[in-house]
Each structure stands twice: as C-alpha cells, then as structure tokens.
Amino acid sequence: MALQSAVTDIELLKDRPAVACLLAGLPGALQSAKFDRDELTLWIDPIQLIAALDLLRTSSETRFAVLADLTALDWFPSEPRFEVVYSLLSHERRERIRVKVKVNGADPYLESVTALWAGASPFEREVFDLFGIRFHGHPDLRRILLPDDWEGHPLRKDYPVEGYR
Amino acid sequence: MPSIDQFRSVPVIETRGGDPTMVLNMGPQHPSTHGVLRLLLEIDGETIVRIRPDIGFLHTGIEKSCEAKFYQQVIPMTDRIDYLCPMTNNLAYVLAVEKLLGLEIPPRAIWIRLMLNELTRINSHLVWLGTHALDIGAMTVFLYCFREREEILNMFEMVSGQRMMTSYFRVGGVALDLPLGFLDYVKNFASYFPDRIEQYSDLLTNNPIWLGRTKGVARITREDALQLMLSGPTARGSGVDWDLRRDMPYAGYDQLEFKVPVDNGGDVFARYQVRMEELRQSIGMVKQAIARLPDGPYKADAPKIVLPDREKMKTQMESLIHHFKIVTEGFTVPEGEVYQGVESPRGEMGYYVVSDGTAKPYRVHMRSPSFANLNAIGVMCEHNLLADVIAAIGSIDIVLGDVDR
C-alpha cells in the first residue's frame, strides 16, 4: 500500500458529492480542498461556516447528518493561526469528510454549531478551554476540563509542555 | 436569581418560580459514578429539574503530552485513556499511524489484534454489567462477572506481561508473538463463556426488581441520540442501527461474521439487552479468530519503523543500527492527517493524528465516546426521579479516564 500523492485541485474533486453540493449551493464558501489517504478535507470560509455545515447536513446528496468530532489545531507562529476541525459522518452513505475553518490568532472566535448539533456543546467548551477559541452563540461557554481559574490554554503551541510553573 | 451553573461547591437552597428547589451535589467521590464524575442536581422534591455534569477531575493533558513524544512512545499513553479497553485504544492509534505511513501489516497480526479486541470488549462489558448491577442492588452478578474478567486479564498478562495497561500493539503489528499455550487457554474460555452469559442473564433479565429499575427508565429517543452525538450501545439501544465494525470496517472486521444488536426501547433495559447480545457476538468472533489465525510473521517487514527481533539485533550489524535509530530518534512519518474511528465498547473512539513530517506527532486528538455520551445525561434524567440517576449513569457506561483524558 504505497502512499498516493494528495489531490488538491478542486476541479479534479468536483465529482465528490460534498464538493459538488457546496459549489452549487453556496458559491464562494469553499476555499480549498484536499483528498489525501482516502480522506477528503474541505476548507470553508468562516463567515459561511454555519450555512455550509447546514447544507452538508441536510442536502439529499451529502446527508452528513452526524457530527462525529470537533477539535482544533494550532499552527503557531503562522497566521491564520488556528484551524477548527469538524468531522462529519453520513450513516446513509457510510462516508466521512473533514471540514476545516481557519481562525486568526489575535481574536479567535467562530459561530457555534450547537444550533445544528446540540451535542457539540461540550466539544466547543473543550476547544475554548484548551485553545482559547470562543464560540459565539454557545449557551454556556465555560472551561470544562481545567479549573475556572486556570491561566492560559494548554494545547496552544506556545504553552510549554511542563506548564508555567 | 443565581443559576445552577454558578454553584461549584456548596449545596444551596434557592427558589425557582415560587417553589423551593434544592441544588444537590453528587460526587466526585461517589461509588456509583464509576470514577470521579461530579453531578449537580437541581431537585424539586425527588424530581430532577436540571442536571449538570462537572468533569475534569482526571484530566492529565494526554493530548499535550503526546506532542512531546515519539510516535511509538504514544502507545502507552493511549492505554490510560480508557483503562477498561486498552487494546481498543492501542488499535485506533496504531491504525491511524499506519494509515499515515501507508504501512501494510501481515495477516497474523491482523487476526491477533481482532481476537484481542473482542476479548477487550468482553472485559469491558463484564465490568459494566457487574458494576451496573451492583449500583442497582444485585451483588451476585458483580462477583460472577469479575470471575470471568479475571480470566481475560490473565490472557492479557500472558501476551503482554500486564493485566490492564497492555501496550501490546505496535505500529506495524504486535510487540511479540502469542505465547505457547495461549490459544488453548482462550479456546477453553470460549467453550464455557457462552453458558456464563446465560447465567448472568438468568439472574437479571426476568428479575422483577431489575425490570422495575430499568424498564422505561432514562429514556432517550433516536432523534435525541443523533443530535447529542451518541454512539455505540448507548445509541443502538435507541434504535440507531450503526456499528463501525460492520458499516465502515477497519482492521479486518469485514472478514468476520457477526450481527449488530439494535433495540428500539431507548431505556436502560434496552441498552442492557444490546450489551448482553454484544457479549454473545464477541465470543463468537473470538472463536472465528482462533479458527482462522494464520501462521507467519507478526509484524511488518519495515526495518526503519518496526523494531528488529532480539536475536537479529544481537547478531547483525544492520539490525543493531536500525534498533538504535528507532529507539533514539524515532521514525519519521510523512506529512498529513488522518482520522481513524473504531468501535470501542462504549462507542466511536476516534484518533485524529496530524503529522508535520517529523518523528513526533504534531497533534493527537482523541474523540472519546464517553465524553460525547455524557451529553445524554440531561435528557435521560430531567423530570425523572433522583434514584434513577444511578441507573442512567450505569447504562451510559462512562469511563472517567475516557471523559477527561
């Protein structure tokens, strides 16, 4: 099983239902795409994130009705610094895709997806806790794993592995 | 009026819409919370108005620690996440790294992994059944379940030298071949275990006390289960017909024959029925794996990634160099990212591994099933009786190491 090189040309990925659906339904939302190791990753414009996720969730061609995972990545020191990663799953089509959104480091915030998936609430709290990315519209955005008076966000790359003390 | 979310430490009486409600603290040191789960319960008499889990007592920053370790050094960390099913965590992680590397592993390793994974599922379900029954008041089941669990822990000790933190799987295969006498031990276990499952079932399934405590208790609908991102037996007990082993097969599960039990009841009893049937299916899969276990190498032929045999390392210069390099510098993994979901005894265990081309992972994220399944506690318990919280927690089958990581 030799590794194939990644496909990053949107033109070549047009036959993928998720890509086709976004290009037709929300022109301009899809910034780039990558197909690598049998996994499709889409980068979405942060302003159109909720509309794009809702489209992928409800469209009859994609039907990614399940949010499997929500997490973030820190690409410190490059900008935009963060990527928030949504793993979508379709039970009907037995397929996964990964939707990513870039978030800048100076004032990291995004719209919350709790209106689409109520279960995303603790996942967003975890990202807030460990990365310091805020989610607008989240019903109860507090730290979840660390104590309320903790300083800093440990999963950021500029946070030392040993902690500050 | 202060809200329940502001009460972090002291139980306080407050008024809510004229009727007095009380905020009651449960845990974190409570035997029925299966670890250190703390629940804040706002109660009106004996009825729960709102319930808020407070987690993080076992948070050890495993995701952060992984970023400072070589790829092979992460494996022992994965055991400690969900300490009732270490092999499942090992498997999810090594599959993700193997996918990043494009590494193929030999058939014997695949079948060894399958067999141990199903034994892990039985081990985890036995702990669930024993403690769940104990919480509700049936002491005998606990003793019976731990009798059989002991046998499985003996098997783990035979293959890895450890009873709980096995760290037996490696990137590219398994650490060592199966020891002599291991297969006979498992065969013997597989011959009597199906009868033991019926023993547990006889103690509970038609027991009027058990039925009274579980039937119609802590209901959750299929729609809510999907909205709240539930997975595994907790979702299958609400009619979600989804099992990664069958629907998105990994690690060779497409070669096994098994049924996925689904129950539409949505209550504690339905989830009990699903897990009992999974026990029967799992022991069937173990038998298939024993029957079909092929001979051959137990690790991939990839000298730059897989450690050489001891014998070769001590007699051949090249193997010695490879050994030295892997141990001191690790092995590099091509740039990329992979999400590998596996069906753990609790639901979808997902490992999201990002590589930047070095010998250490850039990020390892664990999507743990217990963390998501804990979402259900609100829907299950609100407007129900206080005593049923214990049954609800038991039926979700959370492991706090898995929740807090």
Describe the overall structure:
The complex is a heterodimer of chains A (165) and B (405). Helices cover 19% and strands 28% of the residues of chain A. Chain A contains 3 helices and 7 strands. Chain A has helices spanning 17-25, 49-58, 120-131, and strands at residues 30-36, 39-44, 66-74, 82-90, 95-103, 109-111, 134-136. A 5-stranded mixed sheet of chain A has the order 1-2-5-4-3. Chain A has a two-stranded parallel sheet with strand order 6-7. The model of chain A has no long low-confidence stretch (mean pLDDT 88). With 405 residues, chain B is α+β, with helices and mostly antiparallel strands. Chain B has helices spanning 62-66, 75-79, 86-101, 107-136, 139-160, 182-204, 208-214, 222-227, 233-236, 244-247, 268-292, 310-315, 317-329, 369-373, 376-381, 388-396, 400-404, and strands at 13-16, 19-26, 38-44, 47-54, 169-170, 173-174, 336-344, 347-355, 363-367. In chain B, strands 1-2-3-4 form a 4-stranded antiparallel sheet. In chain B, strands 7-8-9 form a 3-stranded antiparallel sheet. In chain B, α4 runs antiparallel to α5 and α6 (182-204) runs antiparallel to α11. The two termini of chain B are 34 Å apart. The model of chain B is unreliable at 7-13 (pLDDT under 50).
Summarize the helices and strands and which ones pair or pack.
The complex is a heterodimer of chains A (165) and B (405).
Chain A lengths: L16 H9 L4 E7 L2 E6 L4 H10 L7 E9 L7 E9 L4 E9 L5 E3 L8 H12 L2 E3 L29
Parallel strand pairs in A: 2-5, 6-7
Antiparallel strand pairs in A: 1-2, 3-4, 4-5
Chain B lengths: L12 E4 L2 E8 L11 E7 L2 E8 L7 H5 L8 H5 L6 H16 L5 H30 L2 H22 L8 E2 L2 E2 L7 H23 L3 H7 L7 H6 L5 H4 L7 H4 L20 H25 L17 H6 L1 H13 L6 E9 L2 E9 L7 E5 L1 H5 L2 H6 L6 H9 L3 H5 L1
Antiparallel strand pairs in B: 1-2, 2-3, 3-4, 5-6, 7-8, 8-9
